[in-house]
Amino acid sequence: MRQWETVYEKWMNCEGLDSHLKQELEAISNQPEVLEDAFYRDLAFGTGGMRGVLGPGTNRLNRYTVRKAVNGLCHYLKKHCVNVYDRGVAVSYDSRYMSKAFALETAKVLGAHGIKAYVFNTLHPTPLLSFAVRYLGAAAGVMITASHNPPEYNGFKVYNEDGGQITPNEAAAITEEIEKTEDELSVPVIEQAELEARDLLTWGGQEVDNAYLEQLKSITKLDSLEQQQEKDLQIVFTPLHGTAHNLVVQALKQLNFYQVDVVEEQATPDPEFSTVASPNPEEHQAFTMAIDLAKRSNADILIGTDPDADRLGAAVTNDMGEYTVLTGNQLGALMLDYRLKTTNPKLLANARMIKTIVTSELGRRIADNYGVKTINTLTGFKYIGEKIRQFDATGESFTFGYEESYGYLISDVVRDKDAVQAAVFACEMAYYWKKQGKTLYDALHSLYEQYGYYLEDMISLKLTGKEGTDKISSIMQVARTESLTDIGGVNVQAVEDYWSGKRITPHTGQTEQIELPRENVVKFLLDDDCWVCLRPSGTEPKLKCYVGVRGDSEKESKKRLDDLTAAMNDFLIRYNRN
Fold first, then answer.
1. Parallel, antiparallel or unpaired: strands 407-409 and 153-159
2. Average pLDDT, stretch 105-129?
3. Could you read off the pLDDT of 223-275 as tens digits, one per residue?
4. Which strands form 260-262's sheet, in the order they lie side by side?
5. How much is the pLDDT for 113?
């Protein structure tokens, strides 16, 4: 009997197994390939925690795999955190299937270890969990979310005592403790009634919300008089069936943005995300209903948040009067420029802007213009949060952080990307430019004219199951070893292999060290400020290929982008077939 079959039999023979999971197992009992995928491994835990398809099995997200993860987290906290029993753990959840149930399962395992849990009594955005950890002085935080993944997914995300996503070293230590739990079906728990009776479970939320909204007042660049005036800005907002509705509307009202039309069909939390193909503001189809509403209301700006409200998308009218969705790179560059141009230069002396290695270099050019140093990190806001934490010791100050995948942070009272902050800031920015007779589209093209036309694209290759995982590893290995000297006719200046930690110049063989953590990423630096980067997704069964170019005109940049994207698409197709 193969290993996965042994584990499957253990689950099937478990007395008291969750009845719904038992029924699902029985329904797939004659599908060996499906069973193997459900049991051939444990669901991976990393710096993003766990994210997976809901269902029975060790490679699925369910109450037992959640309990195992929490059990490991508890052992880690007791070894590494001071006063963990009284400080406790903050727990929040989004609108997905089983989210609240998994939050309660988290509290039940924490309680069995004698650790208090502060659980939000309603669904809340991920950035509020980050804020809550810091506000409550908790030892850690847990967010039940799969962000913008399809409806069949959910996730378990861990935050450290600083309110940031756990670092690779923290994740490795937690994983080590998780793996010590041999039987996920027998993790001790305490039921809700006893938790509440023993003061091991506190339900809350409003106090944290109020404190967070108060902090948001500090990020505005409007003077005190203008803050109090009602703003002439027509806004359309969609929370895409997620968690952001109440907080975004309240935060806008604080600054007297009252002309806010919410897409009512998408205002109610819905785990099926029934009005969109994908609840992801990166996908332009997610804005279809918002654009229809914007046309009727003649909106100045459209904003949309993903289900757990850590990503923000925006759309504005172009020079043809049509609504166009901004990329994450474009919106980030606009917000960075607005933040720096409205800040006293004396306050920028030690200021730092942080972006990821797959984020447009336009941000660096803008920061340079204001005398602000740019820091590059690996992909993932956990690295941005970690860098902010280091500033406490270095004396540097955080001024803005962003990544191309629609994640932004303006104020470090939160240590993760925050779509609520970004929504308010984007609307304020649109108001600033409207007063000058410009749209955000106009402002964006002013940046291009000043710094160059930076354009980016991304190819995503979906490869599922064990075979898909092996194929992704194979393609990454080819990228490392093929010694490419040009891509799409553009010369390769250097290759950065973040797995080996080396930067190699192909034409000379010169090697330098990369001062970033090790990760399975390969980036090709090309002539004319162009670049290509390959990395497996940390949250989905996908291989992602990022492409960035710069040109002196929009036409030149589009041609370069098309050529490089086509070349990389051919590369992925060729080696996916092998």
1. unpaired
2. 98
3. 999 999 999 999 999 999 999 999 999 999 999 999 999 999 999 999 999 99
4. 260-262, 235-238, 301-305, 312-317, 323-325
5. 98
- What integer pLDDT is reported at residue 578 of this predicted model? 62
Closest CA to 172 of 519, 535, 468: 519
Structural domain contains residue 521: yes
Together in a domain, 7 and 90: no
Q: Are 408 and 313 in contact (CB under 8 A)?
A: no
Select which of 92, 147, 360, 405 is catalytic.
Answer: 147
Annotated active-site residue 147? The verdict is yes
Q: Which domain holds residue 411?
A: 231-451
Q: Which two tokens stand for residue 498?
A: 């973040």
* Residues 146 and 227 sit within 8 Å (Cβ to Cβ): no
The token duo for 173 is 């230590």
pLDDT grade for 109, boundaries at 50, 70 and 90: very high
**Rg over CA atoms, the chain:** 24
- Return phi, psi of residue 182, to 5°: -75, -30
Give the Cα separation of 185 and 57 in Å (integer).
Answer: 11
Which residues are 317's β-sheet partners?
323
- Helix or strand run (H / E) with residue 268: none
Q: In DSSP terms, which residues pair with 142 in a beta bridge? A: 91, 158
Pairing of strands 89-93, 117-120: parallel
Query: How far is the C-alpha of 152 from the C-alpha of 49, rounded, in Å?
Result: 17
Which CATH number goes with the domain that contains 58? 3.40.120.10
For residue 317, count CB atoms less than 10 angstroms from its CB and return exposed for 0-12, middle for 13-18, buried for 19 or more: buried
Check whether residue 320 and residue 431 sit in a common domain: yes
Structure tokens at 182: 């041999």
User: What residue has token string 């290695």?
Assistant: 357
Q: Is the separation of the CB atoms in 188 and 108 below 8 Å?
A: no
Distances (CA, A) of 393 to 169, 175, 396: 19, 28, 8
Indicate the average pLDDT of the chain.
95
Using CA atoms, how far apart are residues 313 and 237, in angstroms rounded to an integer? 10
Parallel, antiparallel or unpaired: strands 117-120 and 153-159: unpaired
Number of folded domains that form the chain: 4
Same domain, 56 and 180: yes
Q: Which of 171, 191, 302 is nearest to 236 (CA)?
A: 302
Measured CA to CA, the distance from residue 466 to residue 478 in angstroms comes to: 19
pLDDT tens digits for 464-501?
Answer: 877 888 889 889 898 888 878 889 889 999 999 999 99
CA pair distance 566, 562, nearest whole angstrom: 6
Q: Is residue 219 part of a domain?
A: no
Q: How far apart are CA 313 and CA 148, in angstroms?
A: 12
The secondary structure of residue 367, as a DSSP letter, is H
Q: Please state the pTM of the whole predicted model.
A: 0.93
**Contact predicate 89/140, CB 8 Å:** yes
Of 493, 489, 474, the closest CA to residue 574 belongs to 474
pLDDT of 361 over the 90 cut? yes
pLDDT tens for 208-227 read: 999 999 999 999 999 999 99
Segment 317-329 mean pLDDT: 96
